[in-house]
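User: Could you go from structure to sequence for me? I need the amino acid at each position, not a summary. Structure tokens:
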């Protein structure tokens, strides 16, 4: 089915804004958007130039004055406007009228990203359709509801997984020197440090070997990842593959240091390098799983991991938590991005 019934889109806007909007539309191939052209204000008439968006070459078909001819040139059935400042109120109205007889749809970007539909309300103000965005809610009844769910879920998860925990602990003790559990400092809500528990999956002196492996880092940004990390033990590799190493974190949930669902638990050195925007991750408790977990886990780029965490912080709800938990089960069963 992929590739059929796609929506051909002409994106109109400043070069950077239009390229970003196009990338977002193409982020999920199954959403059905295919970018067939760009129209850049002030560009002038078409000059046969193009640009690359997500490994696809997209033609630049003039500016806002050439939208109608651009539609015909690229076969678009939808126009997506990344910025309305070059049209104005009357220009947008005229464009709507011009597109109507051609059967072409119009989309207009609000300029906001990663805001849940539950926070968006369209209301008329002074005769204009205005998008109202409700504030995120971290406190009150929602906070109590989340904490109650965390305790309930952690107790059940630990009870059901107790035989697995015992077998994993014995296997670690019999196959390598060192403790069964590994306690690592992480930074939690409001910047408070805590000791995150995991089954030990590396050799006992793994932390001392880190400096010698930094040049082999396969991640961008502030993360450190190596697909074939030589410090991981044989049983540890299996535990990671099955995500069993993370089960002790439910103890952190019972302690109130973590949540079942939340942003990825960061290291102190990562937090020290955060800018003001990324510090929003610390407004809620870190989670055993989260949007980052169900969207690629170890395969995620740093910027994408940050974007997903911030989207969760701004939009979290119990419904979204339940959906993330369900997707986590699927991701774990498929061993997606785990190493």
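Assistant: Here is the amino acid at each position, in order:
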């Amino acid at each position: 089915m992929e590739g059929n019934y796609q929506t051909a889109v002409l994106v109109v806007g400043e070069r950077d804004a239009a390229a970003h909007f196009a990338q977002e539309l193409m982020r999920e191939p199954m959403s059905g958007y295919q970018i067939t052209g760009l129209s850049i204000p002030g560009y002038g008439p078409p000059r046969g130039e193009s640009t690359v968006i997500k490994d696809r070459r997209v033609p630049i078909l003039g500016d806002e004055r050439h939208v109608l001819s651009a539609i015909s040139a690229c076969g678009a059935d939808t126009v997506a406007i990344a910025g309305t400042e070059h049209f104005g109120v009357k220009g947008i109205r005229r464009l709507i009228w011009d597109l109507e007889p051609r059967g072409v749809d119009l989309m207009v970007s609000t300029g906001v990203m990663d805001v849940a539909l539950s926070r968006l309300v369209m209301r008329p103000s002074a005769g204009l359709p205005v998008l109202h965005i409700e504030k995120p809610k971290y406190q009150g009844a929602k906070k109590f509801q989340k904490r109650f769910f965390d305790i309930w879920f952690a107790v059940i998860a630990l009870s059901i997984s107790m035989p697995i925990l015992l077998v994993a602990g014995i296997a670690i003790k019999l196959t390598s020197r060192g403790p069964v559990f590994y306690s690592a400092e992480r930074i939690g809500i409001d910047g408070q440090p805590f000791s995150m528990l995991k089954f030990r999956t590396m050799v006992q002196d793994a932390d001392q070997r880190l400096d010698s492996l930094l040049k082999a880092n396969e991640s961008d940004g502030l993360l450190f990842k190596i697909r074939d990390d030589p410090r991981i033990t044989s049983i540890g590799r299996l535990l990671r593959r099955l995500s069993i190493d993370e089960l002790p974190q439910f103890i952190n949930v019972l302690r109130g240091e973590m949540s079942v669902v939340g942003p990825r638990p960061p290291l102190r050195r990562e937090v020290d390098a955060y800018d003001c925007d990324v510090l929003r991750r610390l407004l809620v408790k870190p989670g055993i799983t989260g949007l980052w977990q169900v969207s690629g886990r170890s395969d995620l780029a740093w910027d994408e991991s940050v974007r997903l965490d911030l989207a969760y912080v701004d939009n979290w709800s119990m419904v979204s938590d339940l959906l993330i938990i369900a997707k986590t089960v699927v991701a774990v069963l498929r061993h997606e991005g785990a190493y």
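One structural detail worth keeping in mind: Residues 141-160 form the longest helix (20 residues).
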